[in-house]
Amino acid sequence: MLWALVMEGVETTKMVHTFARHGTGKLRLLPKHRHPTEEELREAVEQLKDIPRFLPFFVVVVVPVPGVTEGYALVAMTLERWLGKKVKFLPSQFREVLHGKEEGEEEK
Hints:
Blueprint: H1 2-26, H2 38-62, H3 68-83, H4 92-99, H5 101-107
């Protein structure tokens, strides 16, 4: 779980850098070869979607009540399985840890 938390931080930092390069490219402050690719922009948008999923999980982890984190993860996993792929409650890195690599690889 700690590794998933670190990876979410790395992905969020990469997202911010990608959007910053895109913004400076729009202002024509960067040469064309430094502009982010469509793939980089798509990944940045997907990470941006992870932020609202991460915030409730982060609050639950910070609350010092035993069992709250496990309960939240269990409820989120149950709802994701019950609703299918329509709704995602867990950030991508946590989903890979809790559901396994095979589901995380299908989405990429």
